[in-house]
Write a structure and sequence with these properties.
The structure is a homodimer of 272-residue chains.
Chain A (H helix, E strand, L loop, with lengths): L1 E9 L16 H13 L6 E2 L8 E11 L5 H9 L6 E9 L9 E11 L13 E2 L6 H9 L3 E4 L14 E12 L12 E8 L6 H13 L7 H8 L14 E8 L8 H8 L2
Parallel strand pairs in A: 3-10, 5-6
Antiparallel strand pairs in A: 1-3, 1-4, 2-3, 5-9, 5-10, 7-8, 8-9
Enzyme class (chains A, B): isomerase
Subunit structure (chains A, B): Homodimer.
Protein name (chains A, B): tRNA pseudouridine synthase A
């Protein structure tokens, strides 16, 4: 048996999210189907986490066990040839059997993108929220900073969250503006990218953070309100959940690049 | 009567090109339909030029005559609200009645984008040609330079071109590489953007230039072959027509920003 870790990017526009759903058409369903086609095995993959319907990924990861002897360097090409063009495997490595894409993940980064110009960009229309109204990006930066650290993020989690604990750590959070003239009172604000890196995220967490930060940017809330919202531990204290299309799972990081056992060693393991 | 000049961007993936076709579903059809809806007039628009099926535009222009009294600053929003989301009016100005979007155009720039990485980018899959094979970008630059100037571009025009003269002027042509390690013998070549600026372009001209330059990049032709191909004045001398999806009409430039008559003056004109 071998354990393979793969990195994928996908345009989530036409999918019901990453994880298998009763109604099908998820990223996981497509991946499992093509891996099964390739190997003849019934394979179950394990993602580093879910992404909601319409959310994209630049660097999602998943792992799965297989007894296939296909060399690791051939998987990417073989699977990409069978996958729809909006899902691409970008990397594949062999990892120790105990490795788990979610449990071993140390840092996950999401990016949320907002087009602040008067007219949205047709080429990114499915990857950016359009918000032509003036946003005070500096106030949003100050508000976002209150969320860094280890906190109970209940206020920023879906009411449907089934997690025992809502304590997570946000290591880094920043806002970058591309081609804009921030806060200049103009509608040509450019593209506002919000990056949030943490040890894990609750359901809708980044989208609720963004929905609340947009209220700060619009002047409807003060930046320091982010602190009291956090302390309230109540979903009702925060703002709305921002649209899924602006969200992208940017990257998943592991403590160290997992060991890649050599093919001969694998064959020896197989003989047990 | 007023003459309006508009700038539009569109994702051409799902259209049969800019210009009206018997089978419909062109950018022009959609624009004329929404302008007619808005004004109640039967309007014919005039583009700065055609773009083929699957070709995109960042800054296409068109003009049309209307007797509508809607203030110029309200057109963009009114039309965008009625257009499909892959077509956006980005600018609208009022110009003198004699102004013509094609005849007054002085410089047009096209960009052709090639993804030279092993795996294509899902988010740009409809806007970039995927060419994972190694390309000698420096050789492509040398080859491209032979095309600058005033020449008969018959070798780089579709055999179906109906133009009387194939003489055009290319003012500038350059290649820019984004996030790549050019010519380093690696497949991670980044994104190669080819920009060509001229006074006008023949049918398929940029795509045939790119198809031929790719052969130079692959080492199948020498850079100086571009000169003899040009001199041959024979379509058969050049390489294949590169796929439409990598091509984008980047911008259309006019000698001077056309005069924008003031609304009062227009009303006086109307009284004649």
């Amino acid at each position: 048996m071998r354990n393979l870790l793969m990195t994928i990017s996908y345009d989530g526009t036409h999918y019901f999210g990453f994880q298998t759903q009763p109604d099908g058409n998820t990223i996981q369903d497509h991946l499992e189907a093509v891996i099964s086609q390739l190997t003849g095995e019934k394979v179950k993959i394990h993602g580093s986490g879910r992404t909601d319907a319409g959310v994209h990924a630049r660097g999602q990861t998943f792992h799965f066990l297989t007894s296939s002897q296909i060399p690791v360097e051939r998987w990417r090409h073989a699977l990409n040839g069978r996958l729809p063009s909006d899902i691409r495997i970008t990397d594949a490595v062999e990892v120790p059997l105990e490795f788990h894409s979610r449990r071993y993940a140390k840092r996950k980064t999401y990016r949320y993108s907002i087009n602040g110009n008067r007219v949205f960009d047709v080429f990114y229309r499915q990857f950016q929220l359009h918000h032509p109204g003036v946003l005070d990006v500096q106030a949003m930066r100050v508000g976002l900073a209150y969320l860094i650290g280890t906190h109970d993020y209940t206020s920023f989690a879906s009411r449907h969250s089934t997690k025992q604990s809502h304590v997570r750590t946000i290591y880094e959070a920043r806002i970058e503006v591309e081609c804009g003239t921030e806060g200049a009172g103009t509608h040509e604000q450019g593209i506002i990218h919000i990056y949030v890196t943490g040890n894990g995220f609750l359901q809708h967490m980044v989208r609720i953070i963004v929905g609340t930060l947009l209220q700060v940017g619009e002047g409807k809330r003060a930046p320091k309100d982010m602190k009291s919202i956090l302390e309230a531990k109540d979903r009702a204290a925060a703002g709305p959940t921002a649209e899924s299309k602006g969200l992208m799972l940017w990257k998943v990081e592991y403590d160290e690049v997992p060991e890649i056992p050599d093919i001969t060693k694998i064959s020896q393991d197989m003989s047990f």
